[in-house]
Amino acid sequence: MSQLALLGGPAVKTKPFPVWPHYDEREQQALTEVLESRLWWRTDGTRVTQFEQDFAAFHDAKHGIAITNGTHALEVALAALGVGPGDEVIVPDATFVATASAVLFCGAMPVMVDIRRDTECIDPDLVEAAITPRTVGVIPVHLGGHPADLDRLVQLTSDRDLFLLEDCAHAHGSEWNGKKVGTHGIAGTFSFQSSKLMTAGEGGIIVTNDDEVERNLRSVHDCGRLPGEWFYSHYAYGSNYRLSEWQGAVLSVQLERLEEQTARRDTNSQLLDQLLAEIAGITPQARDTRCTRNGHYAYIFHVDPQEFAGISIERFIEAMNAEGIPNQAAYPQVHQLDMFQNGAYKTRLCPDQAAGEHAFLKGSFPNSLRAATEDYWVPQYCLLGDDQDMREIVVAIQKVQEQAENLA
Ligand SMILES: *Cc1c(COP(=O)(O)O)cnc(C)c1O
Q: 162-184 b/e with 16+ CB inside 10 Å = b?
């Protein structure tokens, strides 16, 4: 095999991966139509409303409420569910900060628990152990598109009258037991930020089957208004989280591609699972048999340094990037983020909660640590490539492994 690209040899990848995001004349036409209609605001327009209905239908949900972004979708959902000071909400320690910060935004305490070593999603046993009299709900994250154990989570939250809010920011189109993610609990939130599985640059949506929750969500996201009521009547505390018609128009076209793109990502990721099983020291994120479809925000695998001459993950990533294989950084552990370690998070809590013991912040989270420090994430757009693209990812790993001594 040729020399490592990092050391001056030729890169494995000669044909680039597909570019992201995708667009064609349909987005251009939709945007022109919005422009010329002069209806740029969802309140007068129809694009966002149409998108909400189509996205909800795609996810077998009764309602969709479009929101400015995925972080706001979590904030609006938690506010609409009545989360407030004194409450605790259980979240995984391996996620983007928003899953936890949205809880703080509502003045409540996010309680981090570790993930499972195999699926890298929140561990239901640890969720159960973390429940206290203050606990009001759980937010599982379907990491990399793989659903958390929704059987266990639905059971344990409904038994205790807690809400289950799915953070589906990675999981557009994912299914658990043949049912799309988003409505296994009371609601689900999605993001349309530029790296996500469909995008308008920014954007988000909340799906729910519950009419009462939908009414609250609509009100919170539109300054406390209620649909059909006088414009300057504000029934509850809310803010402006409305999506624009530009974004609604683009997202409607993006949604038309989702089915086909999800199928391709899922097929390619299963090919990678098969090929990577042959390489010592590479362990892909496990796929539960109840995951009947994985939207695949990323293809995640663990790298055992011992099988790579003891090199660090940073060195491995550098070598892979040089071979033409991109990666996106794994999340740092949430409880280790500065705002938790320096105490800044307490400014969001009511005094008695801020003064309380948050011993879990000093706890041990071996699986989220392993995920944060030894995982490689292949971005979702790479999974839109062909067979050869997948095989080249594998060849690059083999090449780095064979010559890892030279990187040590
Ligand atoms: C991207 C993301 C969010 C937030 O979405 P934004 O649209 O970027 O605000 C929330 N949770 C997870 C797990 C995410 O990956």
A: bbbbbbbbbbbbbbbeeebbbbb
